Amino acid sequence: MSFLAKYIGQKVKRTEDPRLIQGIGHYVDDIKLADTLHVAFLRSPHAHALITSINVDAAKSAPGVVAVYTGADIAGKVGLIPCAAAAPDMKKPDYPALALGKVAYVGQPVAAVVAANKYQARDAVDLIEVDYDPLDVVTDIEAAARPDSPVIHEELGTNVAWLYQAGSGDIDAAFAQADKVVSLKLVHQRLIPTAMEPRGVLAQYFPGEQQLNVWSSTQIPHLLRTTLAAMLNVPENRLRVVAPEVGGGFGSKLNVYAEEALLGWITMQLGRSVKWIETRRENMMATIHGRGQTGTVEVAVKNDGTLLGLRYNVIYDLGAYLQLLTPAIPTLTGLMLSGCYKIPAIQLNCTQVYTNKMATDAYRGAGRPEATYLIERVLNRVAEELGMDPVELRRKNFPKPDEFPFATAAGLVYDSGDYEKALNKALEIVDYKKLREEQAAARAQGKLVGIGVSTYVEICAVGPSVMLPCGGWDSATVRVEPSGKVTVLTGVSPHGQGEETAFAQIVGDLLGIDMNDVLVVHGDTDRVQYGIGTFGSRGLAIGGTAVAVATGKIAAKAKQLAAHMLQTDENSLTFENGKFVGAPDDKSMTFQEVAFHAHQAHNIPPDFEPGLVASYFFEPKNCTFPFGTHICVAEVDKDTGDVKILRYVAVDDCGKQINPLLVAGQVHGGIAQGMAQALYEEAVYDENGQLLTGELMDYAFPKAHQLPSFELDHTVTETNVNPLGAKGVGEAGTIGSTPAVANAVIDALAPLGVKHVDLPLRPEKLWRLIKA
Amino acid sequence: MKISLSINGQKQEADVEPRLLLVHYLRDLAGLTGTHIGCETSICGACTVMMDGKAVKSCAVLAVQASGAEITTIEGLAANGQLHPVQEGFWECHGLQCGYCTPGMIMSACGLLKENPNPTEEQIRHGLEGNLCRCTGYQHIVDSVKYAANKMAASAARAD
Questions:
Q1: CATH code for the domain in which residue B103 is found
Q2: Taking a C-beta distance cutoff of 8 angstroms, is the pair A60, A72 a contact?
Q3: What's the structural domain count of chain B?
């Protein structure tokens, strides 16, 4: 795609920021409607129990209370919470928006109280009396899969929801021909996404117009509208969903939650607007969690380091019920099991089980961090067993740049890549040879210093549409106003990514206009044509492409009118710096002049449609596959087990960068979350299914002084999957960093004979190993 | 209980429940929604405001405790249409993504720079440990605070 690069590729400051740094943007809780009632939820304190009775009388007569609803009140009126990713042969329990007869995880909504203000609503929640008859609790995922386990959903007869096999190639032959088989059991601990803005819903109903408005802190306003319309039996064209300013998502708001449906239903019952804002405790126990796999990876390898086959047997922790995409997450792990290596035979055997915990679902990376972590860990074990340098083992198994598009035995075709280039760049930045010498010297002094390398590839911008239950396309409308100002309506729904800026850069350059004349509108189903949303690092590669193509249509139409008005042939005109030039007598027209005349329509060609609007729905033909190398140098304190990151270098390749400032921000934040998984974070349930890490006091979300500065660099390998050449970068940092940090810390402990430690690598765990 | 306080230079009086949190007073009664709530347990720092010149978490202060105090919220930071240097730093250095922690982070940074006008990176990281950010990995926030410190030092030098 050719364009004037005044903005594209530049570190452009964000257009979103002025409102946000002055505190004058509007998140859900900042939107105030007159006479709004407030909703608070009573949630289950038990992980598994029968509800034998509920008495709401005292709550109903408490000050300010307008209504109290239980599962019986909404049964048959509010649809079940949907899962879009369950295979037809999957065992799937009903998931009502308010518990009916039993609860299966701590935090499950049991009753809703509606009151004049949030203090009164919360007070009244405490007045509801529920009798629970506790049942045996299942928290351990391996135990859950055993036949003697208590069964959570009796109607299913088992906790095993689904057995799933994937991959291709002759896996038995691979292992038969191997010189060595290396296996490693790993735990991918549960994580809590913890967006800084908790979820929140505001709902309003106009009975005369039969119009329901729902504001929600969501990543998917259109998909939410379609789903809520079905759950509430409201015509989709009379339901408006707005995702206003959204304070982070990381996948946790890529979902359809009970509260969204309930608030929509309650406002229709009461004829008053209603608001619910999630508390942090609710957020930690009743918004989706991430990861949650325990598996064993086995690798068949030749003595020279050639990889022959990989098998991954895994049990996946679904939680108690299925949320929107829960069962799909380990299928993404399966698709990425080849990593950035040539592995002729791959097999995934996945057992999905129910446990008495919150559902897992898509959390930044969504299945790919699990794949990268297990491959990058086991490759280090292979390197140790073969006495090879872990870098050389990786290099040996990379597909070469001329082997792309590269088909893997896991079932994907990687678009483009030059893995060795990124690796070499990272090695050069850290001076790998010297670094290993320094490590040897440090070890000689008794220091526990380790070097961790992770080479990764990931999958972004998933498409074509058949790959996703909701479709993989996205949309844009570019609308030029008579003044020449441009309004972009995008189907993606950014919540921190900066796409208002990135899309304005694209339109600014393609039309040669000031990017400040471009307004990017998103997240409102009444203003924007249907779209899919923002997740899976798809916003720019798919949504941005739709914007670029629609803008190209605008430029073509404007040129047609300019040629007519300048009485010249279109082919003699060129569009430069926002002007059509090349007409006889040096006559020219600005883009703004053309926009005016397109609307005035006094002098248009006979076949010319007045106005200047174009839409494009971009259907990608393949996914994109960004990649890179991360290198971490870490030291473990012998006395305390504390890990200090001495250096962190990331060389990422996300294809063409539209705004390197935004790319750096995404990579930083991604590395931080992946590093947090390696070192700090874990959602801990006790054997009774109580969430012990249910507040920010207990969940080890990293603070500023617990993270280092990162050194970033990049390579650029463009993709031909979309005309922008952009691959996506939202999750790369998270995917690359966890194994780099783990490999560094475990390498540091290698002199003690440590072969593997499960995450998170907290000081106490390491101290015990050091003292053992 | 009757309280009177000054918010962003404007005197206010109100009759509030004794248990009302300052952050709820600011957001729900004073209509200043720039101060955000991320936990209500004084961990995340999203609700940080200046109270009598000190950065405080307004979810850990009762509105009645703020009676007689001078409060500055994020809305009161820019003066005469000019961004505060810390706000400018966050814009220049891409110190925010989703923006939810940002008002609290900016107010904490203001408190930090008041006590230590020329902090090192380590001092910035420790100074902001009461404020959580999930998006940035903190590096650009550190850059933003450094930018503000330099800018404030330069304008102080000009004033001398």
A1: 1.10.150.120
A2: no
A3: 2
Q: What is the pLDDT of residues A444-464, one digit of tens each?
A: 999 999 999 999 999 999 999
Give φ, ψ of A450 to 5 degrees: -130, 155
Characterize the bridge pairing of strands A129-134 and A200-206.
unpaired
Strand blocks (E) in A331-391: 345-354
Instruction: Report how many helices (DSSP H) and strands (DSSP E) chain B contains, helices first.
Output: 5, 5
Contacts of residue B3, defined as CB under 8 A and 6 or more positions apart, other chains included, come to B13, B14, B15, B16, B63, B64, B66, B67
Omega before A369 within 30 of 0, i.e. cis: no
Is there a single domain that holds both residue B72 and residue B104? no
Half-sphere exposure of A42 (CA within 13 A, CB side): 23
What distance in Å separates the CA atoms of residue A156 and residue A161, rounded to the nearest whole number? Answer: 8
From residue A656, how far is each of A12, A429, A668, A670, A728 by CA, in Å?
A: 15, 22, 18, 19, 9
Element of type H or E holding A771: helix A763-771
**Gap from A477 CA to chain B (nearest CA, Å):** 24
Task: Map tokens 């969690």 to a residue.
Answer: A289
How high is the pLDDT of residue A1? Answer: 52
Q: How many CB atoms lie within 10 A of CB B110?
A: 23
CATH number at residue B38: 3.10.20.30
Q: Using only C-alpha atoms, what is the Rg of chain B?
A: 16
Q: Which domains does chain A have, with CATH numbers?
A: 17-24+464-618 (3.30.365.10), 416-460+624-772 (3.30.365.10)
Contact A697 B102 (CB under 8 A): no
Residue with tokens 């708001």: A253
Please tell me whether residues B98 and B142 are part of one structural domain: yes
Same domain for B70 and B115: no
Per-residue pLDDT of A652-695, as tens digits, reads 999 999 999 999 999 999 999 999 999 999 999 999 999 999 99
Instruction: Say whether both B67 and B24 belong to one domain.
Output: yes
Residue of A nearest to B106 (CA): A21
Nearest-Cα distance to chain A for B17, in Å, is: 10
Is residue A371 within 8 Å of residue A337, measured between CB atoms?
A: yes
Picking from B56, B76, B96, the residue at the C-terminal end of a domain is B76
Closest alpha carbon to A470 in A532, A403, A382, A417: A532
Which of B48, B76, B104 is the endpoint of a domain?
Answer: B76
Question: Is A669 in contact with B141 (Cβ distance < 8 A)?
Answer: no
**Cα gap B83→B87, rounded to integer Å:** 6
Task: Give the integer Cα–Cα distance in Å for A507 and A3.
Answer: 10
Q: State the complex-level ipTM.
A: 0.98
Instruction: Kindly provide the b/e burial profile for residues A231-247, where b requires at least 16 CB atoms within 10 angstroms of the residue's own CB.
Output: bbebeeeebbbbbbbbb
Q: Report strand pairing: A307-319 vs A345-354.
A: parallel
**In Å, what is the CA distance from A640 to each residue of A448, A735, B45?**
12, 28, 29
Closest CB to B135 among A26, A248, A696:
A248
Q: What tokens appear for A250 in the block?
A: 């990381």
- How far out from the chain centre does Cα A438 lie? 38
Q: What is the pLDDT of residues A352-390, one digit of tens each?
A: 999 999 999 999 999 999 999 999 999 999 999 999 999
pTM recorded for the entire structure: 0.98
Domain coverage including residue B63: 2-76
What are the tokens at A218? Answer: 């969501």
Q: How far is B159 from chain A (nearest CA, A)?
A: 26
Phi-psi region of A678 (alpha: psi -120 to 50; beta: other; left: phi over 0): alpha
Q: Select from B27, B34, B129 the Cβ nearest to the Cβ of A705.
A: B129
Three-state DSSP state, A448: strand
Whether residue A704 and residue B90 make contact (CB cut-off 8 A), yes or no, is no
pLDDT at A361: 98
